[in-house]
């Protein structure tokens, strides 16, 4: 692993019965880099995201993470409390369905403030001020801070989830189809927001998407997966403009014809 | 007491409960599962507390039982009689004379001493139960001391009502490690748990859990720096003994809407009156 690699995986394998979800997958991520994992449905994208983030164990292979102190940690050998602590602060996870992450019975402010409180913040006024600042960053009016998420639109819910995730200033965020299931116009606005936040804050992102347009807009590099195998990877423009692997060529052309 | 074992439970069961109690004392605030037995009282009548009391009671103990602060409610009287009959121990209504105090809903006003044990009857031992229904998840939260969710609840209360709206069973951190339900005592009583010289034991019969706070252990009510925990009591003085510091109950005195505030701790009130204190009601 390179001296300043943030996350690095080698030889990941995972089978579900007869299905090979991951087949000898290697992967590297640098600080501040956005890496898109693309491929059609069932190609193993979500499985890879779960294994990289320690949520699911591989059958073989290793995932290294460089913690904020510069120490390399083996994500799958970490004690559970350390992994949970990582997920609470230095990492973030943005789910396709914001309802899987948000507490729908808790105000927007409480949702954004939760990770701060989990880290030990014990000043109500500061937590609330921080929550309001983050709502503004994701373009939600400050006066919605005391509202319940159930009064929010789909796009707002996704932005609320992003605020809730970024409030602890994570260095690495995992996103699984963050714009999936949203109207095209709402998607465009959300993609713009994610791009500007990620750039400004220098967050590294592993982004799963089946939408090559999303990858093109957000990612520095892409990895193309087919049946658990990384068939091609490289700089986004290179891979999408000049695909080498037949499967990538198929993906790109089907986007173009869509 | 022919045909009865001392304090109702068989020796085997008492040993099992004592072993769980020792674990509970060793890990302050941590819930320990125990093989709760059927008792000759329905759940909700303090079967957890009764089993704990039975396990720690000795022949030379003096037992006091209170319910909502009073020694004379049906529940308190029947539990006191139960132990007088099955263990032949002395009973008392005076806090100062008791070596073991079993309680539901209150901590006596008179400070407890090192030579006393207080046994709380607990309906719901899990402080996170209302926020997180999964027992596996709350177990994980305790294991990792992950209590952000409880603070989210406090945050929401302050946002909605301007203050924390929990008036009973107000959650506490024990020894800076475990979140604990103090049982449905008023939040007013919470400060009495902190650094208490007496051993505090908690028994939940239906939920089959025990927990404990050893003497002189830090017990802190959850709060925010800028919204510190505060106790509240009715602003009145006790109509009978004139106390301006005790926890008061409001009682209806006649059918014309007459009301009176009196100490909920009946022994405290009677002791004060015996010492010559009087409230507005008696003076009139
Ligand atoms: N828990 C599981 N048990 C059995 N099979 C699974 C499990 N999780 C995933 N799979 C299988 O592994 C393969 C990869 O699934 P994965 O969810 O990673 O795909 P994906 O690329 O994220 O697909 P999609 O775009 O539809 O979300 C699929 O064939 C899937 O059916
Ligand atoms: Mg998926």
Q: Which features does this protein show?
A:
heterodimer; A: 258 residues; alpha/beta; Rossmann fold; 2 domains; 6-stranded mixed sheet; 4-stranded antiparallel sheet; 9 helices; 10 strands; 24% strand; B: 284 residues; 7-stranded mixed sheet; 3-stranded antiparallel sheet; 8 helices; binds adenosine-5'-triphosphate; binds magnesium ion
Secondary-structure topology with pairs:
The complex is a heterodimer of chains A (258) and B (284).
Chain A lengths: L6 E10 L2 E11 L4 E5 L6 H8 L7 E7 L5 E3 L5 H9 L2 E4 L13 H11 L5 H14 L16 H13 L5 E5 L7 H18 L2 E5 L3 H7 L2 E6 L2 E7 H6 L4 H12 L1
Helix pairs in contact in A: 3-4, 3-5, 4-5, 5-6
Chain B lengths: L10 H16 L5 E2 L13 H10 L5 E6 L6 H14 L2 E2 L8 E5 L12 E5 L13 H9 L4 H14 L10 E3 L3 E3 L9 H4 L5 E6 L4 E5 L5 E3 L26 E5 L6 E5 L2 H9 L5 H4 L1
Parallel strand pairs in B: 2-3, 2-4, 4-5, 5-8
Antiparallel strand pairs in B: 1-9, 6-7, 6-10, 8-9, 11-12
The structure holds adenosine-5'-triphosphate and magnesium ion (MG).
The site of magnesium ion has 2 residues of chain A, from α1.
């Amino acid at each position: 692993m390179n001296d300043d690699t943030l996350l690095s995986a080698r030889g990941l394998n995972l089978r579900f019965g007869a299905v090979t979800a991951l087949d000898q997958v290697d992967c590297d991520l640098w600080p501040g880099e956005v890496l898109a994992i693309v491929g059609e449905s069932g190609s193993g994208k979500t499985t890879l995201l779960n294994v990289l983030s320690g949520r699911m164990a591989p059958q073989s292979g290793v995932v290294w993470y460089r913690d904020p102190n510069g120490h390399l940690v083996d994500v799958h050998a970490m004690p559970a409390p350390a992994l949970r602590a990582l997920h609470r602060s230095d990492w973030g996870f943005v789910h396709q369905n914001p309802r899987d992450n948000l507490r729908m019975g808790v105000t927007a402010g409480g949702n954004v403030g939760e990770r701060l409180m989990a880290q030990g913040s014990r000043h109500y006024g500061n937590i609330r001020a921080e929550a309001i600042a983050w709502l503004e960053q994701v373009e939600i009016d400050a006066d919605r801070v005391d509202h319940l998420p159930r009064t929010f639109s789909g796009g707002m819910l996704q932005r609320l989830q992003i605020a809730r995730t970024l409030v602890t200033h994570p260095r690495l965020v995992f996103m699984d189809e963050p714009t999936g299931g949203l109207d095209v116009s709402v998607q465009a606005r959300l993609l713009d927001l994610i791009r500007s936040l990620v750039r400004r804050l220098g967050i590294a992102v592993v982004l799963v998407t089946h939408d090559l347009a999303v990858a093109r807009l957000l990612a520095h590099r892409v990895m193309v997966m087919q049946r658990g195998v990384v068939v091609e990877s490289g700089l986004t423009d290179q891979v999408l403009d000049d695909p080498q692997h037949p499967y990538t060529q198929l993906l790109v052309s089907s986007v173009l014809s869509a | 007491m022919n045909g009865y074992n001392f304090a109702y439970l068989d020796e085997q069961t008492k040993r099992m409960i004592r072993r769980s109690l020792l674990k509970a004392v060793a890990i302050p605030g941590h819930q320990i599962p125990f093989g709760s037995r059927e008792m000759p009282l329905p759940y909700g009548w303090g079967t957890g507390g009764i089993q704990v009391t039975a396990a720690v009671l000795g022949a030379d103990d003096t037992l006091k039982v209170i319910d909502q602060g009073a020694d004379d409610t049906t529940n308190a009287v029947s539990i006191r009689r139960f132990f007088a009959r099955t263990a032949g121990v002395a009973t008392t209504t005076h806090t100062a004379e008791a070596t073991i105090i079993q309680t539901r809903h209150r901590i006596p006003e008179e400070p407890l001493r090192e030579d006393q044990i207080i046994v709380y009857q607990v309906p719901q031992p899990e402080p996170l139960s209302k926020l997180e229904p999964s027992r596996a998840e709350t177990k994980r939260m305790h294991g990792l001391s992950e209590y952000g969710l409880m603070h989210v609840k406090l945050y929401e209360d302050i946002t909605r009502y301007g203050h924390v709206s929990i008036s009973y069973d107000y959650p506490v951190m024990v020894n800076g490690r475990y979140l604990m339900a103090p049982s449905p005592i008023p939040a007013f009583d919470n400060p009495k748990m902190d650094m208490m010289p007496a051993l505090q034991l908690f028994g939940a019969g239906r939920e089959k859990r025990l927990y404990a706070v050893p003497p002189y252990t830090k017990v802190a009510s959850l709060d925010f720096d800028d919204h510190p925990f505060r106790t509240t009591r009715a602003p009145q003085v006790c109509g009978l003994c004139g106390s301006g510091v005790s926890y008061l109950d409001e009682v209806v005195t006649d059918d014309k809407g007459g009301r009176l505030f009196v100490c909920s701790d009946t022994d405290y009130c009677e002791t004060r009156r015996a010492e010559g204190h009087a409230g507005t009601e008696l003076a009139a």
